[in-house]
What does this fold into?
Amino acid sequence: MKNLLFTLILTLLCGVKTEAQINLNFGEDSPLRKLQMANIAISNFYVDKIDEEKLAEDAIKGMLKALDPHSTYTNAKETKAMNEPLQGDFEGIGVQFNMINDTLVVIQPVVNGPSEKVGIMAGDRIVMVDDSLIAGVKMARTDIMKRLRGKKGTKVKLTIVRRGVKNKLSFIVTRAKIPVHTVYAAYMIRPSVGYIRLESFGAKTHDEFMSAIDSLKRKGMKSLILDLQDNGGGYLESAVKISNEFLRSGDMIVYTEGRRVQRQSFKARGNGKLQDLPTYVLVNELSASAAEIVSGALMDNDRAMVIGRRTFGKGLVQRPFVLNDGSMIRLTVAHYYIPSGRCIQKPYKKGDKEDYEMDLEKRLKHGELTNPDSIHFADSLKFFTVRKHRTVYGGGGIMPDYFVPLDTMKFTKLHRQLLAKNIMMDIYLKYADNNRKQLRSKYKNFEKFIADYQVPQSLTDEMIAEAKRQKIEAKDKDELSRTISYLSKQIKSLVARDIWDMNEYFRVWNEENDIVKKALEVVSEGK
It folds into this structure.
């Protein structure tokens, strides 16, 4: 352990394959020799006992902090948690849950999952896992998940409290592989118009996406709205596979270049099944990375119209270096470039992560999210699409063909505070828990729900009253009215989710989404 930092650096460098051989002969004046000597001095002579693992981790974090905003270090536990949502599955008991008053309440068991198979139902409260009490003890959500998850085939005893049942119930659940879906919604949003919402780009996204496409084609889909709003990215391979479905043979999808990394190009193979399907891609300021690769590839090849707001601008390529304890360094080694030659990455100052993280707030303050007239591009940022030679602009992110402003009149300050203080969700979850059985019994048909369900005024009144107790109030009657209107639409979407699934959530919410509504206009005009 004495020279752990030096060993880690040496191991890392030895694993790097570059065009030029790396010189590992550290001379007396080498910066790496200074690191080695500092580590030896601290380990052997510091007055107090030190944690050498932490010392090594802090040194790595310190080095990465001086670089770009996306070069990061994660310990073994963090690395595992970060990778699970993209790998397509994890091992556990298979329930969706929320915490209500420090108690885990099952929202839905995964269909055909291990919990459903033994009889666990929506609304059940899990109060004990094996011999550990998890209810009413203010246990962290991560600690609860750690107890519920485990290797496939292992068993866990769950103690359940169920409404209407006097005594506690016990279930032995055998953990299994639980699928993680990245296609959140796929339905016919209008006659002949299909809609697919991708939440991220995971290992199984392409398979899910093509399955959704086949289903929509059977329902008469003639054009597609591909929704990448809020999609933070994921695996490059997945983005390339999906882009390939729309493009002709030889079309550039994306290429990467870096100081010590040779240019690598990803091109369409010509075997895509969607080359002639009219397509409209939706993006916003939270669409990033792989989502920007797909939208940029389709836009630059004049293959799809992009609708929404300028994307996040995450165009740095990270290479993972897995260390011997399962921890990982994700080091930026190259930039992403889309077919027109534009670099996706927005500008940043090395070592100034705070400024980088404030970018969206600055965009809002400067009016970029709300007013197209506030968006200006220098001539030096001018590029041209591949086929039609339309003018497009670089400078970071993907600027859409059709700009849709953020409507700040809908999303009031009061509403933002209701969300920030968790007032809305806390009260909604109690409402859903108390009424889930009746709602599912009354609305077995989604069309009936859309037509008939009204959010109880008492529910929104309760939220406003709780906000007032916390000294949060609307500035006037107009703001209060707009807040309640928006809350009601949001709550109806959540009720649809809790009765059915995310697909129905978006079927409700999309009718209020300005970017989706603009896409429907563009589709109807045949552009």
User: Anything to note?
Assistant: The radius of gyration is 26 Å. The chain has four domains: 4-65, 89-179, 183-318+330-406, 413-518.
